[in-house]
Description:
The structure holds two protein chains of two kinds.
Chain A: H1 3-7, H2 15-18, H3 21-30, H4 71-83, H5 88-114, H6 129-140, H7 143-153, H8 163-184, H9 210-250, E1 257-258, E2 266-267, H10 274-285, H11 293-326, H12 338-364, H13 368-371, H14 374-404, H15 408-419, H16 427-439, H17 447-450, H18 453-479, H19 495-518, H20 524-529
Antiparallel strand pairs in A: 1-2
Helix pairs in contact in A: 5-19, 6-8, 6-12, 6-18, 7-8, 7-11, 8-9, 8-12, 8-19, 9-10, 9-11, 11-12, 12-14, 12-18, 16-18
Chain B: H1 2-8, E1 28-35, H2 38-50, E2 56-59, H3 67-71, H4 78-104, H5 121-143, E3 167-172, H6 180-189, E4 193-199
Amino acid sequence: MLDGVGASISGVDTAMSDMHPDQTIALQASGTASVQPVPRHQPIIPGSHDDGTLVEDPGLRAPLVLGERSFNDVTNTVCGYAEAPMPKIWLTAFTITSSIAAIATGMILYLIITGVGVWGLNNQVDWAWDITNFVFWIGIGHAGTLISAILCLLKQNWRTAVNRAAEAMTIFAVICAGIFPGIHVGRVWFAWFLAPVPNSNGIWPNFRSPLLWDVFAVSTYATVSLLFWYMGMIPDLATLRDRAAIRLHKGVSRGFKMPTPIGDGLALHFMPKPDQIRVLIYGVMSLGWRFSSRHWHRYEKAYLMLAGISTPLVLSVHSIVSFDFATSVIPGWHTTIFPPYFVAGAVFGGFAMVLWLMIPLRMFLPNFSDLLTLRHLENMAKIILLTGTMVGFAYAMEFFIAWYGANEYEFSVFANNRVNPAKAPYWWAYWTMITCNVAFPQLFWFRRFRQSPLVIWIVASAVTVGMWFERFVIIVTSIHRAFLPGEWHMFFPTYVDILTFVGSCGIFMTLFLLFLKFLPTFALSELKIVMPQSHTDDHH
Amino acid sequence: MMTTAADYFPMLLRKQAPKFVTESGNPVYGIVAEFDETPKVFKAAAQVRDAGYSKWDVHTPFPIHDMEEAMGIKTTKLPLMAGGAALTGLCIAVVLQWGTTDILYPTVVQGKPFEAWQPFVPIMFELAILCTAFMCIFGMLALNGLPRWHHPLFSHERFYRVGNDRFFISIESSDPNFDPVKTKQLLEKAGGTDITLVEDVK
């Protein structure tokens, strides 16, 4: 089908694939051969930036895995990174991010010991960075389930390139989100009041409050996302288990080495071999999966049902988060557009974060660009453009209704608290939001920009910043001025506010780096389904 | 149903004497044949199905499209179970919210009515989803007889390639049609290579 493209593929080194695969694995594991299959020369089409996936002919299907890779190559690419010794660059990054995460831990402890007064909150602005960060992270956590669930139901095969990483990102973002409502309640040791458990006070949580719906929505979302992610990983963990077992059996396992900043690492002979640890941990986590077709049948049914229920779930979660604001009677919050507006914004911010994380990954791990092609990036750029435009429409409609609704307080929040630089002290926050979320994505109308990883990455960074500002604008500019001018207060973050947020980014990145190193970053079995060799007819 | 229970609670069943035993005295689990391409294993599966076997399986690195048909697998009851779980979650939410808000501990909050159903909808929805998700994954695992520590197939070294790029057909010795010679011939004819007798090593 893709003869023209296939013929021009150059530089695919087949030396590795000619060898007997067992021997290849043995060589790779013993360090006598590179762990990865030989990288494909880029670009595939000489003289262009096209890697062969940007075909515009609707009659042609862009290949989802490049470089004429075999199943074994794909397994080696994905598992190879999880099995190789920790690279220096990974250790460096991990040291930095985990130090930042430690700062968050310190700040949270300081907050708990001292009280919420260490934040910049005041009588008027009683929700600020804490809830901004909560909504920011929970919003980022929406892309994973969207990619896994909605794109699965829509039979978008290209999702296989990003779904695992996006689901992982979802869970880590939800973890970061969960921190903030937990610690902002003041007396953290009473946070269990949120749970509906019988207690001697004779008081139950108020089920008529959106704040409690939020507790249920976010905890359900975290649980279901975790289950979905884990279930998808079971077969791939079994692959990692089996590969470690093969190496142990053939006696080609590396010994345990403690990484050191300089040199090759310190060999520790009393420690078990990494492969022994892998067989145990991956073995337990893969639950004895043996790739049976009878199991696959139920597995696929379960996956489809999870996708089916996750779709309304993902839409409900951010709707319910928006109810926290929309059911109140505060001008600027009391708006019926909030649920769809929040959901579109969450998908928007989540996709931006996926791109922001995956584009550098393609650069550092060259073989990943076989699995995560320019076409995948372009597709996601189109979703950014679509959701960005929806968000832009929501901003405009919100403003229009504030005027058309003829409620002077509502209109005043927009005009005097947000938009007008002459009157609104937070005008810069509002206009940062508009620039980042509405203006930047418009670049993607041009094919050249949606096909350039650098431009996509810059836009993704801008959108991430813009989405944080969106929540800041919604929360702080609405409440910093009440009906009496005597109640007007600005919000100034303290260093604890700032470092807690920075630290939460550290927690997120630390968890993501751990995922990159120790778990299968791509959904192996799903990638294999979209490869031509998986077809049951002979002529492929 | 019984086979599922047997998979999951093997300790509850009386052990049957093994039909076939190897020279070393271990019972025979079955015969395993290896395939290297998707179309080959797909065609072979249809042949094994047509030969009338019932206790057999195809092991593949990824779910093969239409394999259910090629193997003659009946559709799973998992969706029905998930539906039951959804209703259970819904009922839990109804009892929890009405029970505490309207009946057991009615507390006046902003004059909101106790018995209005509208505010209870979000949590009804969330709990229904939560229970369905639990049933999807744990029900799937239970029907599959997982998790389990070991399986006789894992004593076959070549089988460890199944997660990478190899396909296997295993026919169990407990199948009424199983015959060490004839079953092997069938798998040979179907194009299997490295056909091996797998022992159930204790």
